[in-house]
């Protein structure tokens, strides 16, 4: 049964949609975002740590780590999916309850595996990072000799699951031979499960030692591809406090190196005068920089994208003012006069007459233009 709606709600919604349809998408998006709590914005192409800018844009998109666990007599597999640049996208061919929320950045799926029919059954989906309370922190890895070429520690926090804080720590380690996408296992459904065997030391009736095979479980362990090196490694998902669960990953990639593109690579080294301006050329604008302001490419695109202009803000404020006036006027007419339909809108008669007024005005203009071209005075007899 559909819930009842009041004429006021319908008129208000129609008014906002009518106005929004005629405005640019950037303006309507800004107006809609004003009513929600925005998550902290992280630009993965501009991660600045200790004055050095790291570009992890090539690592954007979903990446997966698969683990399995044997807890006798049950088998489990876990699929961790993360996107450091944007929230994960929902899959249309997967049930909604078998996925994390639409704003999740790190998701953990748990499946139960049955050795008898060799099928995995979904159990839980847990969001580990994302949502409106998303927060991140980028710091430098420890200064040990292993990380002398660079490295970033990226921490996601702010999300709660069943009253417990979730925390994700990703250690980006410099590895000049790996891009960061090598050795990923796409799904946990193709994992070959093998019951581990444990040799138990026992004694027979003659007090002689002998060994028997027994079952023993194993903790959660990452599934690795043997033929290739694995860039994204699972370090563990465990409790680190009274109310905190932490997932820790290690990501080996060349983009975590200090000499990777986008960082200090473009800075001139000591004694390198190749790019230094000569005498008399310091104040000259570069090629393509007409205003001499130093904008890249000379087109000012970066400054335009950083902030809105005066007219954009004027249109936004005008749109919000008109919408507020119509909604408040509709509410007032509904409560004071019991108006319905078009009568809800303030000055409804005038609004309904606008098409006819425009038609009459257009006709007058056309008649004036046509009559001005005709010859004045008397007609010839």
TrEMBL record:
Membrane-spanning parts: 308-328
InterPro entries hit by this protein: Autophagy-rel_prot_27, Man6P_isomerase_rcpt-bd_dom_sf, MRH_dom
Signal peptide: 1-33
Ranges for domain MRH: 42-259
UniProt cross-references to Gene3D superfamilies, sorted A to Z: Mannose-6-phosphate receptor binding domain (2.70.130.10)
Ranges where the record places region Disordered: 196-222, 262-299
One Pfam family this sequence matches: ATG27
SUPFAM superfamilies: Mannose 6-phosphate receptor domain
Ranges of Basic and acidic residues composition bias in the record: 196-212, 262-293
Keyword vocabulary terms for this entry: Autophagy, Cytoplasmic vesicle, Disulfide bond, Golgi apparatus, Membrane, Mitochondrion, Protein transport, Signal, Transmembrane, Transmembrane helix, Transport
Membrane topology: Single-pass type I membrane protein; Single-pass membrane protein
Taxonomic superkingdom: Eukaryota
Cell compartment(s), UniProt: Cytoplasmic vesicle membrane; Golgi apparatus membrane; Mitochondrion membrane; Preautophagosomal structure membrane
Family in the record: Belongs to the ATG27 family.
Protein name: Autophagy-related protein 27
Organism: Neurospora intermedia
């Amino acid at each position: 049964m559909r819930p009842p709606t009041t004429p006021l709600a319908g008129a208000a919604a129609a008014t906002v949609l009518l106005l929004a349809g005629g405005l640019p998408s950037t303006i309507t998006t800004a107006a809609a975002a004003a009513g929600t709590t925005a998550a902290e914005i992280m630009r993965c192409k501009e991660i600045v740590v200790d004055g050095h800018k790291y570009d992890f844009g090539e690592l954007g998109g979903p990446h997966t780590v698969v683990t399995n666990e044997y807890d006798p007599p049950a088998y489990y597999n876990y699929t961790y999916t993360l996107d450091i640049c944007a929230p994960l996208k929902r899959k249309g061919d997967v049930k909604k309850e078998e996925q994390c929320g639409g704003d999740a950045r790190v998701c953990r799926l748990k499946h139960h595996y049955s050795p008898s029919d060799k099928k995995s059954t979904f159990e839980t989906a847990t969001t580990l990072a994302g949502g409106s309370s998303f927060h991140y922190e980028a710091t430098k890895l420890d200064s040990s000799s292993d990380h002398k070429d660079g490295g970033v520690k990226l921490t996601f926090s702010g999300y709660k699951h069943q009253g417990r804080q979730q925390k994700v720590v990703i250690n980006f380690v410099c590895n000049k031979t790996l891009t960061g996408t090598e050795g990923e296992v796409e799904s946990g459904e193709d994992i070959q499960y093998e019951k581990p065997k444990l040799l138990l030391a026992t004694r027979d009736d003659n007090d002689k030692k002998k060994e028997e095979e027994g079952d023993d479980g194993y903790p959660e362990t990452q599934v690795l591809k043997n033929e290739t090196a694995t860039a994204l490694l699972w370090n563990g998902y465990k409790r680190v406090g009274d109310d905190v669960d932490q997932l820790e990953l290690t990501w080996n990639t060349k983009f975590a190196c200090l000499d990777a593109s986008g960082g200090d690579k473009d800075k001139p080294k000591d004694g390198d005068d190749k790019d230094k301006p000569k005498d008399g050329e310091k104040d000259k604008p570069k090629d393509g920089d007409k205003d001499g302001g130093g904008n890249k490419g000379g087109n000012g695109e970066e400054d335009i994208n950083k902030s809105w202009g005066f007219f954009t803000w004027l249109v936004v404020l005008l749109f919000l003012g008109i919408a507020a006036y119509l909604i408040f006027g509709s509410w007032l007419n509904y409560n004071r006069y019991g108006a319905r339909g078009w009568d809800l809108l303030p000055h409804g008669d005038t609004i309904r007459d606008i098409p006819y007024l425009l038609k009459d005005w257009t006709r007058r203009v056309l008649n004036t233009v046509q009559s001005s071209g005709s010859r004045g005075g008397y007609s010839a007899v």
